[in-house]
Amino acid sequence: MFGRIKGRIRFDKKGLVPAIVQDAVSQEVLMIVRMDKKALKKTMDSGDLWLYNRSLKKVWKKGQHSGNTMTVKSIRLHHNKNALLVLVIPHGPACHTGNNTCFYETYWQGEEIADELNKEMAEREESDSNLRTAPEPDEQNTISADESEVESRVTEEFQAKQDDVLSQVYSLIQRRRANPVAGSSRSQLFGLGKEEIAKRLGTEAVTLALSLTQAQSQKIVHKSVDLLYLWLLLLADQGISLADVLRELWRRYQDEEVD
């Protein structure tokens, strides 16, 4: 199924190599396993993840009993050649506990980092609020030098993170849901309940549809963002993983031919 891996893998004295297993769509790290030459060959031949079970001391297919198998999309080799990164499409939870990832517990989080995140989110919310009261971009005749500089910075940051922007926004929403901030419009939205959020989502969908019929480019962009954000809020409120949605999207369309 796969071409040959370039470079020789450095197995340890027991003939094993650690492999980090990562969701190919959401980029979430799912688990760490050990592989020997036999497990690696079975993986490459079948396209399913095989590993070396150190408890049973034998090669084992991931999901052999549970049915939570993993389809391997690619295998990457660390530059020291002593570790692998396996990109997969999981068919069910990765962890035997039923969690999507084996890394579901937070061991430590620096207070300074948490404070910085909360501060950054509060600043973004204030910025969003100011943007809502400002005229639409197509109604403005001029753009100041400061606005141009900010727009340039935003564009550069987006280009660096665009492949994972939905996941990053969803993570911010989850953190805000777990740690609400007094006076935050985002925190207040969660307090409204799923019915009200769903109602607002419907309103934004109608507004977006009207914008499409009127060919208002800037408004279409802005309303698309509002719609996406409310959709992510609903996912978080219902405890639905963004990875599950993206995985289903990938499953449905991965075999589609691109024109």
- The quaternary structure here is single chain
The CATH topology assignment of the largest domain is Helix Hairpins
CATH superfamily of the largest domain: MazG-like
N-to-C SSE string, H for helix and E for strand: EEHEEEEHHHHHHH
Per CATH, which architecture of the largest domain? Orthogonal Bundle
Biggest beta sheet attributes: 4 strands, mixed
Tell me the Rg in angstroms: 23 Å
> β content, as a range?
5-15%
Number of domains: 2
Number of helices: 8
Please list the strands of the largest sheet in the order they lie side by side: 2-1-6-5
Helix content: 40-55%
First-residue to last-residue Cα separation? 25 Å
What does this structure look like?
With 259 residues, this protein is α+β, with helices and mostly antiparallel strands. It has 2 domains: 17-90, Roll (Ubiquitin-like (UB roll)), CATH 3.10.20; 111-127 and 158-253, Orthogonal Bundle (Helix Hairpins), CATH 1.10.287.1080. The protein is 48% helix and 14% strand. It contains 8 helices and 6 strands. Strands 2-1-6-5 form a 4-stranded mixed beta sheet, covered by helices on one side. Helix 4 crosses helix 7 and helix 6 runs antiparallel to helix 7. The protein is elongated, with a radius of gyration of 23 Å. The model is unreliable at 130-144 and 158-162 (pLDDT under 50).
